[in-house]
Hints:
Blueprint: E1 2-4, H1 11-25, E2 35-37, H2 43-50, E3 56-59, H3 76-81, E4 86-89, H4 92-97, H5 102-114, E5 118-123, H6 127-131, H7 135-149, H8 152-155, E6 159-162, H9 176-190, E7 203-206, H10 214-218, E8 225-228, H11 235-241
Parallel strand pairs: 1-2, 1-8, 2-3, 3-4, 4-5, 5-6, 6-7, 7-8
Helix pairs in contact: 1-2, 5-7, 7-9
Bound molecules: 2-phosphoglycolic acid (PGA).
2-phosphoglycolic acid binds next to β8.
Amino acid sequence: MIANWKMHKTVDESRAFAREIVRRLGQATLPHQLIICPTAISLWAVGQELIGSSVMLGAQNLDLGREGALTGAISGYLLHEAGARWVIVGHSERRQFFGDSDALVGQKVAQAWESHLRPIACVGESRDDYREGRTISVITRQIEALLAEASPEALRTLIVAYEPVWAIGSGAVPDPVQANDLAALIRQMLAQKIPDDAPNIPVLYGGSVSSKNIQQFLRQPHIDGALVGGASLQVEEFLKMADIGS
Ligand code: PGA
């Protein structure tokens, strides 16, 4: 389960949340890997709290390149240095508000791998695409861009999150069986370039996941986990979704 905190929580709030999660986890053996993705500015502080726990740290975006005259940019190399081991790329909010194109998302997957980060690549159709029956063609186009830009080595480290844009933050979710079919399609497409590894690439579902509906997605054979936004911001809800008793 991946918690995407987006542009929420101060450094202090992020640190306190991580500390509480680690305390509540104790020695529990988790049924799933947990990854927390705070804002870039809280990465280091959260990473310090997670040392010695099984919870891992991820970033929400990376910029291309390693270092240089790129005002405001944060490279994968710097994210890794701050403690991140994962990075979300191609989230629909990046595509929508920051102009991340399909090709750039593919390049970011490649860059993540070069920076020793595992990329979590998001794909998903908009509400209009969904209404007009373009879901499969949109997903296909987005995955093809990853295949074109990233090497097999980079693709082998990938996690893919299927996130219908219309489900993000809306409270609406797709039929889990349909989400499962799309997860299967994504894996099939990855097999074009990494036939031996595609069956092991984790494919997650994301979009309005909460403790009330997470199980219906996790029960699907092609869905390996969840990428959670809003519901990951509260400790109790987070722990419920992660299947950890209080
Ligand atoms: P949500 O966001 O869980 O708040 O719908 C998910 C995401 O954007 O990754």
